[in-house]
Amino acid sequence: MTKDKSKQTSNKSRRVATSDDIEVSTYLEIAEVGGEQPIATKEAMPEAEREAIIVIDFGSQYSMLIARRVRECQVYCELLPPDTPREKIASLNPKGFILSGGPASTYEPDAPLAPAYIYESHLPILGICYGMQSLAKQLGGQVTPGIKREYGHAILHLDEVDSPLFTDLPSSTPVWMSHADKIEKMPPGFTTLAHTENSPIAVMGSDESIFGLQFHPEVVHTPEGKTILKNFIYRICGCQGNWTIGNFINESVATIKKQVGKGKVISALSGGVDSSVVATLIHQAIGDQLTCIFVNHGLLRREEVERTFNTFRLNLGMNIIFVDASERFLKRLKRVTDPEVKRKIIGEEFIKVFEEEAKKIGKVDFLAQGTLYPDVIESASAGSKASAKIKTHHNVGGLPAKMRLNLLEPLRNLFKDEVRQVGTALGLPEEMVWRQPFPGPGLAIRIIGEVTKEKLEILRGADWVVMNEIKKAKLYRQLWQSFAVLTDVKSVGVMGDYRTYGYLVAIRAVTSEDAMTADWARLPYDVLARISSRIVNEVPGVNRVVYDITSKPPSTIEWE
To answer: Is the residue at 374 inside a domain?
Structure first.
């Protein structure tokens, strides 16, 4: 939890505790913007024009969401660990800092704290939840366990309506709470700016533009949260909002040029927007130094191999190599049922294929991948010790330790909607930009149990029906993902007066913004009816269809 600030920065000295060492890797966050953006020019944004809001990550599940909200305000943002060197921060020309929430309590041994130089900078600071509590402790206040925990909705009542943090806010507004500790005593110089029934100090601020919010403004459950963050970014930090998709492309191209130099890159193409944008971005940076490799691992959907390869050949204008490795992957997956083992095998085999193809090309230095941030966070990458490992993604945790190629992942810290904006700005075709996410391991993780040719054909048939009916109902763009799952369950049925014993197919359709959370889609009954009828009539071996009505969490979007 954190503290707040209201007014402009002053030159007063601040009493600060030293921060503990926390081993957390750096995450780069790039701004998200709406609307059309100009196509990138060859020059990157001049250093003098750059402005940034730095989010110090204390391990909250919402840390990336904070950075996302800042990007929505067209301001460059980086999510960094508390032990980030002062020089790294200074090079970004920060206009302010946000301290995230987190699972720790400030009175616990080795609880993470913000680095002293943040306070010494005299820049505006906004503490959220644990970030607020960190501020309180470091600036001379007191944090204690709360008598009553506060999770869920609460009503925030403003005590200081004239605070610039509250511009355009009603006097009372719903907020989302998630805390067990409380501010027992505010630091010297702070006043209460707002309260809830359970939190007498729900917002605190000082005349040095330091603020603390006990609630989470970054989540959708706080309706005015974006307004609060926008007030902090523009009214208190003085940001101009000059970070655009065009600027992201410019900076990415410049970074790729510098990183690759005269080296050669191979890029994995799958037909999805992630790999397509990665390839196009890298090609813009280094041209013919890039060779794209499209691998048919035998785990793609019906007609996907042909359509994808033709699309790349016609639209991307790049060096493309087609590799049919379907038998090779199926052989490796024989008798494998554990989903984590499947992912590891597919990841390892992908790298082997790329390395073999690289030898044919000559000396290759980099492997490009379309890794996105949701992949990273679910694989419990080094970004936060507090992030629990849910499952391994083949393009994050499935890579062999002794891989001979360096990784090039220009989209590693972007969300899917941002990638689509980049793809549109780069001129990619609409059907490529708006393709629903498809997992790297393909249909292997939509088949529960062992992957066989027979099961793949059954699943391809069922998935074809789902896609066809969803598109006919004009629901495709409204859904994050929609697909079929072939379970390992068989059940008794009757067809044409004969007993059947066929597979059970599950249908999964979800809505989401970034795959970090998702809700099951309320598909119309007539659409579900057509899907079910067609699958059992058109797909041999299936006699039962069910619809998955579980959200994420507690489930994941994919079944494996």
So the answer is: yes
Q: Which domain holds residue 325?
A: 245-430
The predicted structure's pLDDT at residue 532: 97
> Which residues of the chain, if any, have pLDDT below 50?
1-48, 380-401
Please give the backbone phi and psi of residue 32, each rounded to the nearest 5 degrees, phi first: -105, 135
Model pLDDT, residue 383 = 41
**Could you tell me if 231 and 95 lie in one domain?**
yes
What does DSSP assign to residue 557?
S
pLDDT computed for residue 307 by the predictor: 78
**This model's pTM is above 0.70:** no
Backbone angles phi, psi at 65, to 5 degrees: -70, -35
- Does the active-site annotation cover 216? yes
User: From start to end of 314-371, where are the E strands?
Assistant: 319-324, 366-368
* Nearest partner of 472 among 530, 555, 415, 420, judged by Cα: 530
Domain co-membership, 275 together with 408: yes
Cα–Cα dist 375/255, whole Å = 22
Q: Any catalytic annotation for residue 393?
A: no
218 has catalytic annotation: yes
DSSP 40: P
CATH number at 46 reads: 3.40.50.880
User: Could you tell me if residue 10 is inside a domain?
Assistant: no
DSSP 235: I
Catalytic residue selected from 32, 51, 218, 418: 218
pLDDT in tens, 169-192: 999 999 998 877 889 999 999 999
CB atoms within 10 A of CB 170: 11
Indicate if 305 and 171 belong to the same structural domain.
no
Residues 217 and 260 reside in one and the same domain = no
- Kindly report the number of other CB atoms within 10 A of residue 270's CB atom: 21
Contact 480, 518 (CB under 8 A): yes
Residues 222 and 279 in one domain: no
Catalytic option among 32, 77, 78, 129: 129
Where a domain ends, among 203, 236, 269?
236
The total number of structural domains in the chain stands at 3
Report how far residue 86's alpha carbon sits from residue 496's, in angstroms, rounded to the nearest whole number: 74
CATH number of the domain encompassing residue 279: 3.40.50.620
Closest CA to 49 of 259, 200, 244: 244
218 and 180 in a single domain? The answer is yes
Whether residue 253 is found in the same domain as residue 219: no
| Predicted pLDDT of residue 332 | 95
- What is the tens place of the pLDDT at every residue in 108-159? 888 999 999 999 999 999 999 999 999 999 999 999 887 766 678 899 999 9
Residues comprising the chain, all counted: 560
At residue 326, the pLDDT reads: 94
- Rounded to whole angstroms, the Cα distance separating 332 from 334 reads 6
Domain boundary pick from 170, 203, 236: 236
Which residue in 32, 77, 195, 216 is the catalytic one?
A: 216
Residue 44 and residue 111 in one domain? yes
- Asked, for residue 553, whether it belongs to a domain, the answer is no
- pLDDT of the residue at 31: 26
Sign of CA dihedral 241, 245, 247, 252: positive
Asked if residue 483 is part of any domain, the answer here is yes
Burial class (CB in 10 A: 0-12, 13-18, 19+), 85: exposed
